[in-house]
Amino acid sequence: MTKVADDEPFPIDVLAGYQRAGRAWVKTDAGDRPVAYLLADVIDGNLHLEQVSVHPASARRGMGRSLIDHAAAYATAEGLPALTLITFTRVPWNAPYYERCGFWSLDDAELTPGLRDLRRRERALGLDRWPRVCMRRDL
Question: For the whole model, what pTM was predicted?
Fold first, then answer.
């Protein structure tokens, strides 16, 4: 999966858009250095977790789960009924991790139009070289 690992981060203007929308959250370490972040969109009336990233040196410390819980609280306050995401199925810190966080896999019939569109875009980028799944967590 080196293609995924070598993928460039979002450009500053894209990150700034998430910040302006109030849907970019960052966790910092004791020295106030960013070590984890979550970016979210609203897709088909749900809060969609576009990106959840934790620096490997800060992994397994609850940072990702804390960000997901914060996103869930945000979604609830905004009246959004669920969190959604798209992730890799066979990477331990992806689908299996999200299942432990209360998400479940959606089958094709359960996909909303927006999620179907995201999956089409992913296929065009070649991400389907590795199994992917759409997941949901009701709030």
Answer: 0.89
